[in-house]
Design a protein that fits this description.
single chain, about 290 residues, alpha+beta, Thrombin, subunit H, TolA/TonB C-terminal domain, six-stranded antiparallel barrel, five-stranded mixed β-sheet, elongated
Length: about 290
C-alpha cells in the first residue's frame, strides 16, 4: 500500500485577508493541462487559500488566475501547493511579477486600513517652489589668510582702541543722538512652510484606483485610415483624485486628442502617504483597437 504523505502545518510568512472571488487553477499532469475552477477564501502578498473542484498534491506547481475585489485587474502567478484539506487548499506564490505584487500589496493596505509607506512607491519628489519663495544661495567663504605682520597687528589694535574711546565719549555727551542713529532690530521672518510632496506611482497601481472612467471616442479619420495603437500619457493626479495635468508622450498623433479628452474626466481614489493625501505622477495607457468599435 502506498504511503500517505504526512501533512505538517506550515507557518505563514505573510498575513492573509478575506477575499471572495472566482479563481482558476491550472495544473499540468502527464503533459495535459487541467483547469480546476473554484472560489477564493483569502489572499495576501504571499499566496491564497481556495476551495477547488478537484484535488491537488502537496508540492505540486500550478498556475493561478484571480481578480481582486473592487478592481478590474487580474493577477496571474505560479504557485506551489502547501496544504490540501478535503476541498480546500493553500497555495504559496513562487513566481509573481513586480507589478502584480505591488497591486496585491496595495489592495491589502488600502482595503484593510494600513497606510502606504514611503518604501511602497517609486520615489518622492518635491514640487517646484514659486520664485518668490526661493532664497539666495550662500556664497562660498573666502579662504582666510593665516597670520599677519606685527606692524599690521599693532596698527589694528590702536585703531580699535581709538574707536572704542570715541564711542564712549560720544555716548556720554550725545546720548540722544547715538540712540537715534542705532540700527533698528531686524524683523523676524517666519520659516517657510514645507513644500508639498508629489509621488511617482506605477501605472498598474493607479489603474486599480480608478473610480470613474470614460471610454474615448474613436476618431473617424483614424478609422478611415485603419490607424490603431496605444497612446501613453504623462498624468498628474491631484490630492482629491482629479486629473490636473496631461501630456501625450507616445502613440499615434491622430489618436492623442481623443485619449487626452477622455482621461481628463477620469477620477481616482486619493493616494495616501503616511496618512495624508498627496499628488501623484504616473502614466496612463489608452488603447485603440478597430475590432473594439
Amino acid at each position: 500500500m502506498a504511503a500517505i504523505p504526512l501533512q505538517i502545518p506550515v507557518r505563514r510568512r505573510h498575513p492573509r485577508y478575506e477575499l471572495t472571488s472566482p479563481v482558476e487553477v491550472t495544473v499540468l499532469r502527464s503533459g495535459i493541462p487541467q483547469n480546476l475552477p473554484g472560489r477564493l477564501v483569502d489572499a495576501g502578498v504571499g499566496g491564497i487559500s481556495a476551495v477547488l473542484s478537484g484535488d491537488l498534491y502537496i508540492g505540486e506547481s500550478v498556475g493561478v488566475e484571480f481578480s481582486l475585489f473592487d478592481t478590474r485587474q487580474t493577477v496571474q502567478a505560479r504557485a506551489r501547493v502547501r496544504y490540501q484539506d478535503r476541498i480546500r487548499c493553500g497555495l504559496e506564490f513562487s513566481t509573481l511579477s513586480a507589478g502584480k505584487l505591488e497591486l496585491v500589496r496595495l489592495w491589502t493596505e488600502q482595503g484593510h486600513g494600513v497606510m502606504v509607506s514611503a518604501s511602497d512607491i517609486a520615489r518622492i519628489t518635491p514640487v517646484a517652489a514659486p520664485q518668490f519663495l526661493e532664497t539666495a544661495r550662500p556664497r562660498a567663504a573666502k579662504p582666510r589668510r593665516r597670520g599677519m605682520g606685527w606692524t599690521t597687528g599693532a596698527l589694528l589694535c590702536i585703531a580699535v582702541a581709538g574707536i572704542i574711546t570715541l564711542g564712549a565719549w560720544a555716548y556720554r555727551h550725545f546720548p540722544e543722538v547715538t540712540r537715534l542713529v542705532s540700527p533698528p532690530a531686524a524683523p523676524v521672518t517666519p520659516a517657510p512652510e514645507a513644500l508639498p510632496l508629489r509621488v511617482t506611482v506605477a501605472s498598474s497601481v493607479m489603474q486599480s484606483l480608478i473610480t470613474y472612467r470614460t471610454v474615448p471616442v474613436y476618431p473617424e479619420l483614424a478609422q478611415e485610415k485603419n490607424i490603431e495603437g496605444t497612446v501613453l500619457l504623462d498624468t498628474i493626479v491631484g490630492k482629491d483624485g482629479r486629473v490636473i495635468d496631461l501630456r501625450p508622450v507616445s502613440g499615434p498623433p491622430e489618436l492623442a486628442p481623443a485619449a487626452t479628452e477622455a482621461v481628463k474626466s477620469w477620477r481616482f481614489s486619493p493616494f495616501t502617504l503616511n496618512g495624508d493625501a498627496v499628488e501623484v505622477e504616473t502614466t496612463i495607457e489608452v488603447e485603440f483597437r478597430l475590432q473594439d468599435r
